[in-house]
Design goal:
57% of the residues lie in helices and 0% in strands. By secondary structure, it is mainly α.
């Protein structure tokens, strides 16, 4: 997945109050050399909308990757990421600063991606750039049957995660789609780390049961 060529529109490029759909724009101005996320957030909250561009440029690729793991569609992942940035901009004052800004943003993005996944019809996805998931036939090429099976399994996992009850859905998604550590999940959700571990374990048990039922 090549996200390096895309740049997200920051609030200085898009009217956040009036925008109704995600937008991608080319950003020509480079991000500041120094990156202090707390100082940048302070500048934005003080009225410097342009400062938010640095956060967009820094966190954009990771947010797209997290959304892509949930949605398995690059265009839809970019749309979800754009929505996450607009949502984060509007809720910036609620960031508690008890963890990385990227972890807080990832939680917002994962929630948006999961909602999108729940709204659409089930579909089997093939991972971009790896149609066979590493499964090849004896001649050295991709085995179409194996590729389809891999895609179906990947789609089934995404569907099963999106159908988990809360808080298991969020915990499993943040751990495996958002790649947050258990400590980061605890910080972002405000739950004790022991509770997070329990939710993850129970969520994985429910996920396994759901997948076995589908099989």
């Amino acid at each position: 997945m090549d996200v390096g060529r895309r740049r997200f529109a920051s609030p200085s490029d898009v009217d956040v109050e009036e925008r109704r759909g995600p937008a991608i724009a080319t950003i020509s101005a480079p991000a500041p050399l120094g990156y202090d996320e707390q100082a940048i957030v302070d500048r934005v909250l003080a009225g410097d909308r342009e400062a938010f561009r640095a956060l967009v440029e820094r966190e954009g690729p990771g947010v797209v990757r997290a959304c892509h793991r949930v949605l398995a569609d690059l265009h839809e992942a970019e749309d979800a990421a754009q929505e996450a940035f607009v949502t984060a901009f509007g809720a910036l004052s609620t960031w508690r600063r008890d963890g990385p800004f990227g972890a807080w943003l990832t939680r917002i993005a994962i929630r948006i991606a999961l909602r999108r996944a729940q709204r659409r019809k089930p579909v089997a996805w093939i991972e971009p750039g790896d149609p066979g998931g590493g499964v090849a036939d004896l001649a050295g090429g991709v085995d179409p049957a194996a590729a389809m099976l891999h895609a179906e399994r990947a789609g089934a996992v995404r569907t099963a995660v999106s159908n988990l009850d809360e808080p298991y859905r969020e915990t499993v998604a943040l751990r495996f789609f958002g790649e947050l550590s258990l400590a980061e999940i605890a910080e972002q959700t405000g739950r004790p780390i022991g509770t997070v571990k329990t939710h993850l374990h129970r969520g994985l048990v429910r996920l396994r049961t759901s997948l076995e039922g589908r099989a």
